[in-house]
Amino acid sequence: MNVDRITSLFEKDLNVINMGLESFSETLVEQGVQSTHVFWSPPAGGDARLLEALDVLNSRKEEIDLANKKALEIIQKGKPEIIDIQIAIDVIPRMTARTVLHAGPPVTWENMCGPMKGAVIGGLIFEGLAHTREEAEQLASSGEIIFDPCHHHSTVGPMAGIVTASMPVWVMKNAVYGNRAYATLNEGLGKVLRYGAFSHEVIDKLRWMRDELAPILKKALERHGPVDMKNLIAQVLQMGDEGHNRNRAGTSLFIREMAPHLVRLDEDRETIAKVFTFMHLNDHFFLNLTMPACKCIIDGARDIENSSLIVTQARNGTEFGIQISGLGDRWFTGPASKVDGLYLPGYTADDAGLDIGDSTITETVGIGGFAMAAAPAIVQFVGGTPEDAMNFTLDMYEITLGENSVFQIPSLDFRGTPTGIDLMKIIERGIYPVINTGIAHKDPGVGMVGAGLVKPPANCFDEALLAFAERVK
Fold it and tell me: Against a cut of 0.85, is the pTM above it?
C-alpha cells in the first residue's frame, strides 16, 4: 500500500513546498516543477545563547504574558492631552540653566556626531552662553555643561533633540495616568537646529519662536482648553499620515483646531498671520506633538515587572539604544546605522550622518513606521513603493503585543495598528522594528540632506534579551 502511494506520487504533477535555501526552489522552477518557497529561519537565528534565554523566558510565559497584557492595556487606555506651552527650565524635571538635553542614549561631547555637536553649538549660542562656534565648542568640552538624554527628563527631541533652558516646550499630560511629557516646537525642515545647523538665521528663528510664536500659541491654547492628541492622531491615520515622517494632515488639523482661538486673540493682525504662515509652510509641525504624545502614552507602561515591552528606542547619531519595561532605566545600545534614503539635490550618501533622533518613540505606540500602510505617499519622502509601506506594517504585527484600539488603517479594513513592541518576539522571529527617518549632514552646521529607512543594530536587542532572561529566571 505504501509502495503504491509512493509510485502514484511520481505519476502526478509535483507541487513542492520548499523551506530553507531558496536556490532549491529556484532549481525546481527551472525544471518546470511548481514550487512555493517558504521563508524560514530558526528562532533567534540559531544562536545558542539566545535560544537558552528564550527557553528560560518561556518557562515563565504565564507571568510574562500577564505583565505584557497589563502593559498593552496601559497603552490602549492612555490619553495624551496638550495642556500648555512653557519654558523648559520652568517645567522639565531637573532642568538647569546649563543643562543640554539630547536625543538618544547617553553620549559625551567627545563622542557626539557632527549634527549633534552642531545643534549643541546652536543651543549654547541661543542661550547666550557663547557667541561664536569656537566659544561654544570650548564651553561644551569644558565639563561645565550637563549633557543628558531627553528621555531621562520625560522629554523627546527629533533628530539631534537638543533642548536648552529657555526654549519653549509643549506640555503633554496623560489624562488617565497623570504622567507628563515635553518637546520643543518644530522649526521646519532644511537648515534648522535639530539637523545640526546654527547660523544666525537658525538662531533668529528660535528666538522668534520663543518670543512670539510660543506666547501666541499658549494664549490660543488657554482659550481652547486641553487638546486630545489621541483623537487627532486617530484622524490623521485616516487622512494619509503615519505620524512620524508624514505630518501634513496632522499639521492641517492642528491649524484648524486652533484657528478660531488664534483669530480672537488681541494681537496684531500681521503677527497672527505670521504664526499661521509658519505652521502652514511647516508640514512637520505636528511631529513635535505626536512625539510627546507617544512618550506620554508609553511612559505609563514603564517599570512593569516581567514585561518584555520596549518602552524606548532612540538614537544619538553614534549609538541606537532601547529600554525595556521590566528592566527599568537600563540602556542597551549598538552602533547607529546608515540610513538608506532619498537625498536633496546636491547631496549623496557620502554626505549623510548616521541614524539620529528620539522620533522612534512614535513606533513604540503603533504609529510612524508601524503605520506606513496608512500613508503610502510616505514613500515619496523616504523611498520604496506603496507595496513596501503595506508590507512593513504587516511585518510589524509579528513583533507586537496587539492591535491598537484607536489607531486604525483604512487600507487594512480598519485594522488597529501593530502596537507594543515585544522584545521576545523580535528575537524569536528575527524581525526588527521598521524605522523611517530624516537624514542630517554628517558635519556640524549644514542641516538636512534627505530622508529614508533604517535598520536598527541587532546586538542591542540580543543583549536586552539576555539581561531580561537573567532578571526573570
Answer: yes
